Amino acid sequence: MNTALYFDELFVEHDTGDSHPEAPARLEKIVHHLRYQKMWHPYLQEITRRATKDELRRIHSAAYVDQIERACQSGLKQLDADTWICEKSYEAAALAAGAGLQAVSAVMNGKFKNAFCIVRPPGHHAEHNKAMGFCLFNNVAIAARELLQVYELNRVMIIDWDVHHGNGTQNVFYDNPHVYYLSIHQWPLYPQTGKLEEVGVEAGIGANKNIPIQAGTSAEDYLDKFKLEIEKSFNYYQPEFVLISAGFDAHVNDPLADLSLQDHDFYEMTQFVCEMAGGSAKGRVVSFLEGGYALTALADSVEAHIRALNSA
């Protein structure tokens, strides 16, 4: 078996209130669908650790980590207009980050070729000291820092195909040449970042690539652009490990965006990234669930993503 899945029921206990798009039903739908497809128990791994405060502080300020913990303990319901929490949210967010740390460890140690973290809250909008866009802790960034600090890799690539730009991930590594951040996203759209000219600063110049896509772009044009830019980036950067912020909200049925992908397109994207990662990255890929708010489309797209990972 090439692929590991990381999930815990605690992620469902992150309660975002009635009618919030980033709802527990997202994961419930995914789990039900994967069970039906007999794609659950052969792949599922127990998450045995939460990210410690020291691990969270590799990306977020100490004051911010403590602020999120206190806010959840106090029973506060909202951090901003979009980002809702409950008493279990800090624990769920720390476990989501821990799932990523466990996944990269398993892949680095050769236990699995790749892994997918079916987690919530999502992470790629979370800034150094600010929650936003449904996100508390930046799961993919925390995993990237683990690869740099613990495993002493020099070139980690993060591919973000969520329909919204991952402002938090970009900002964390904007001056860092050891993490190459590539985002393909609808433009303009929340959070109004991710312009073509945002290429990094100082030592990080050239290690940040944004691919803005106009609303209504066909799936064919999207995939052509995606493959072209991915191939160019791999050839240029030669990453040693690949992380994916795997949002599925570029699906044609998603209510929060206006792109045209279907589940088989996510299979093709995943397959292409895995093929490219077979070179310098030795096939090592870990992905993280980000967005995706049309439940049936989300579950079908996640299935396609996992099938492509496992066929790599």
Describe the model.
The protein is of the alpha/beta class and 312 residues long. The chain has one domain: 3-Layer(aba) Sandwich (Arginase, Chain A), CATH 3.40.800. The chain has helices at residues 25-36, 53-56, 62-74, 89-108, 139-149, 167-172, 219-237, 263-277, 295-310, and strands spanning 3-6, 44-45, 114-117, 156-160, 179-186, 208-213, 241-246, 285-289. The chain has an 8-stranded parallel beta sheet, sandwiched between helices. Helix 4 packs across helix 5 and helix 8 (263-277) packs parallel to helix 9 (295-310).
CATH H-tier superfamily: Histone deacetylase domain
Architecture per CATH nomenclature, i.e. the level-2 architecture: 3-Layer(aba) Sandwich
Average pLDDT works out at 98
| End-to-end gap | 10 Å
Supply the CATH class. Alpha Beta
Shape designation: globular
Number of strands: 8
Please summarize the sheet with the most strands.
8 strands, parallel
How much strand? Answer: 5-15%
State the low-pLDDT regions, or none.
none
**Percent of residues in helical segments?**
25-40%
Could you give the order of the helices and strands?
Answer: EHEHHHEHEHEEHEHEH
Number of helices: 9
Using only CA atoms, what is the Rg? Answer: 17 Å
Total count of domains: 1
Structural class computed from helices and strand pairing: alpha/beta
CATH topology: Arginase, Chain A
Major beta sheet, strand line-up: 2-1-3-8-7-4-5-6
What's the helix and strand layout?
Blueprint: E1 3-6, H1 25-36, E2 44-45, H2 53-56, H3 62-74, H4 89-108, E3 114-117, H5 139-149, E4 156-160, H6 167-172, E5 179-186, E6 208-213, H7 219-237, E7 241-246, H8 263-277, E8 285-289, H9 295-310
Helix pairs in contact: 1-9, 4-5, 7-8, 8-9
